[in-house]
Specification:
The protein is of the alpha/beta class and 282 residues long. 34% of the residues lie in helices and 16% in strands. Bound molecules: glutamic acid. Glutamic acid (GLU) binds at residues 8-10, 42, 199, 213, 217. Pfam families: tRNA-synt_1c (PF00749).
């Protein structure tokens, strides 16, 4: 099987050094394996995505010396594929509509109890309010996965991590998925899919054999491996790399314009300078 990995940025701000690091690692791995490096534009959140940021992504990555096959997959063009995946889960009886607003969820969550996790990789663990609630279908709603049902009878859920931080085979525990992640959102109100659903459907469609991305997404990987199983998709290997931090040790954010690749470019840096800045060799 051809080794295939990807870089999947969201066009919601300028790429910074952390993105350069991630893209360069993915491209270097592809080269080392004689495989392919793909780019995917994760513009599922149309309210935050901007075309000029997408153009800047192409420009910055090309400037860094990277190339990728075209046309590039863009999530905004994949609505039908996401709808098919949701229908598959719904037909299996694993989803339910949810009309809760953030404030409703906060209110229903109640006081924290010792030893009971409140937050997971999908945010606040959903208290289950809508699981048995009946309301008109026309009402604006999100769609959630019924986690307890989803994991029923599932065995041997596992994936292989290639990165040094968490290297090895990792087995998922069904009871812990219910307790520490809960009923995740599959479709957000006003959006075609949640990040989790889209990333799983797209990695499969692109034939990704290794997902290369930052360690901030490590916990979310459990969700992705579960969704792959439920949708009958194969699980790729994973490589979660360390994160580039600022001088204060804080993870770089899109808002952090000072670390934007475009800022270094404007200041006269060469691609080699940026590659060295993130600790890689050109
Ligand atoms: N689009 C995500 C981001 O920009 C990355 C998704 C992934 O690599 O799985 O943080």
């Amino acid at each position: 099987m051809t080794f295939r990995t990807r870089f999947a940025p969201s066009p919601t701000g300028p790429l910074h050094l952390g993105h350069a690091y991630s893209a360069l690692i993915a491209a270097q791995e592809a080269r080392a394996h004689g495989g392919e490096f793909l780019l995917r534009i994760e513009d599922i959140d149309q309210s935050r995505s901007r075309t000029h940021w997408e153009d800047q992504i192409y420009d910055d990555l090309a400037w860094l010396g990277l190339s990728w096959p075209r046309p590039v997959m863009r999530q905004s063009e994949r609505t039908k594929a996401y709808a098919r995946a949701v229908a598959q889960l719904t037909d299996a009886g694993l989803t339910y509509p949810c009309i809760c607003r953030r404030a409703d969820i906060e209110a229903a969550a109640g006081a924290p109890q010792e030893g009971v996790p409140q937050f997971g990789p999908d945010g606040r663990i959903y208290p289950g309010t809508c699981r048995a609630r009946v309301f008109p279908e026309s009402q604006d709603h999100a769609i959630r996965l019924n986690m307890a049902k989803a994991v029923e009878g599932l065995t041997e859920l596992s994936f292989v991590e290639k990165g040094a931080l968490f290297a090895g085979a990792h087995r998922l525990d069904a009871a812990r998925l219910v307790e520490t992640i809960g009923d995740i959102i599959l479709v957000r109100k006003g959006m075609a899919a949640s990040y989790h659903l889209a990333v799983v459907v797209d990695d499969a469609e692109q034939g990704i054999t290794q997902v290369t991305r930052g360690a901030d997404l490590w916990e979310a990987t459990q969700i992705h491996v579960l969704l792959q199983r439920l949708l009958g998709l194969s699980t790729p290997d994973y490589h979660h790399h360390d994160l580039i931090r600022d001088d204060a040790g804080k993870r770089l954010a899109k808002r952090d314009d000072a670390r934007a690749i475009a800022t270094y470019r404007a200041d006269g840096a060469t691609p080699e300078d940026v590659i060295e800045m993130v600790g890689l060799t050109p």
